[in-house]
Amino acid sequence: MRENTGPHQVAVIPGDGIGLEVIEAALAVLRATRVPLEFQRYQAGDECLKKQGAALPPATLAGALAAEAVLFGAVGDTAAEVILRLRRELNTFVNLRPTRAFPGVDCLYPELKLVIVRENTEGLYGGLENEITPGVVTAMRVITQRASERIARFAFEYALRNGFGQVTAIHKANVLQKSDGLFLRAARAVAAEYPQIGYQEALVDSTAMNLVLRPERFQILLTPNLFGDILSDLVAGLVGGLGLCPSANLGDDHALFEPVHGSAPDIAGQNIANPTAAILCGAMLLRHFGELPSAEWVEKALEGTITAGQTTSDLGGSLSTTEMTQIGRAAWRERA
Ligand code: ATP
Q1: Other Cβ atoms closer than 10 A to 162
Q2: How far, in Å, CA of 215 to CA of 197, rounded?
Q3: Over the stretch 205-216, which tens digit does the pLDDT of each residue have?
Q4: What is the DSSP letter of 311?
Q5: Distance between terminal CA atoms of the chain?
Q6: In 3D, which of 75, 100, 39 has the Cα closest to residue 258?
Q7: Global pTM?
Q8: Which candidate in 125, 180, 199, 314 is catalytic?
Q9: Are 64 and 90 in contact (CB under 8 A)?
Q10: Among 69, 197, 236, 276, which residue's Cβ finds the most Cβ atoms within 10 Å?
Q11: Tens digits of per-residue pLDDT, 145-190?
Q12: How far is CA 22 from CA 124, 242, 253, in A?
């Protein structure tokens, strides 16, 4: 992170659909913490493409590159041009997705705490799709030793720093022998440097089943890009839904925080989206800046609000996005 004496510079890219609503909620909570943050808003996404002719205008990319952190909402059909490109341009090689259940939320696993550490720059998401002849399309899956070792090291360091005792490398090396074979060899080499952290490997398909049947077998899932994307929606389902799950895209020089969910056009514009994931992104952003007490208060206030059943309809409550945010903000103020 850069040295900075003034307020932290945060680029805000709300995007499309519920991205606009939940980022507004996160900003309201971040402002209430009184941590010195300066927000610069930028356009991106489907609507931006219609209005400006570019889904990720140069000014937005430049703003994201110049900021100390980015708070991102969601985009619709332009995800490949916007968020995948941003992750590449910012070289955020880690996609960190910590998921936890909240007391009071009716879900399959009320005690669950699980983290997905997903490689974020390659795999099938490198944008290397080709129509080689009409009716035949290829998509290149790139796995490199460098990126695999880098993400594995992040997973083990994260385990050490955050009190986790085990990392599971997720793969399909019985079929994708060369690419996932390389991913696993890199993970094993890094695992050998961390004898204090348990290491296991699991096939992605059986992991999908075991996450539903016995998720307590897992603590940190270390995954190539696509597997991590799919499994994180599954894990969201175990704790009560996508509205609860934040993520961070982290690199050596940049950090971008975004809810795991997308733009959810089915509920957009109705003020009913659950703001929790976006507010938790705000808490992750505060941690990134070393503002630990504020981050903890935000998380506690949110937990109190959810536990009291003061939630949006996806969690069985009847509050709007703005009402849930206001109650969370008020709880924060009382505790502060
Ligand atoms: P993407 O491809 O961008 O991940 P998606 O097609 O998986 O998007 P999402 O936008 O993530 O779709 O949403 C899937 C469904 O989950 C939505 O239709 C919506 O009903 C629900 N959902 C997602 N986010 C929220 C939220 N914050 N609050 C309430 N419901 C949500």
Answers
A1: 11
A2: 18
A3: 999 999 999 999
A4: -
A5: 27
A6: 75
A7: 0.92
A8: 125
A9: yes
A10: 276
A11: 999 999 999 999 999 999 999 999 999 999 999 999 999 999 999 9
A12: 29, 12, 26
189 CA distance to ligand 1 middle (Å) = 37
User: What is the reported pLDDT for 332?
Assistant: 60
- Whether the CB-CB separation of 288 and 248 falls below 8 Å is answered with yes
Ligand 1: lining residues by beta carbon, under 6 Å? 18, 22, 79, 242-243, 261-264, 266-267, 273-274, 277, 314
- Please tell me the distance from the alpha carbon of residue 202 to that of residue 210, in angstroms, as a whole number: 10
Q: How far is residue 68's CA from residue 279's CA, in Å, rounded to a whole number?
A: 18
In single-letter form, the type of residue at position 308 comes to A
Contact 171, 208 (CB under 8 A): no
Return the residue matching tokens 């009184």: 34
Interatomic CA distance for residues 236 and 259, integer angstroms: 11
Question: What is d(CA 50, CA 34) in angstroms, rounded to the nearest whole number?
Answer: 36
| DSSP 8-state assignment for residue 142 | B
Look at phi and psi of residue 239 and say left if phi exceeds 0, alpha if psi is from -120 to 50, else beta. Answer: alpha
- With tokens 């850069």, the residue in question is 2
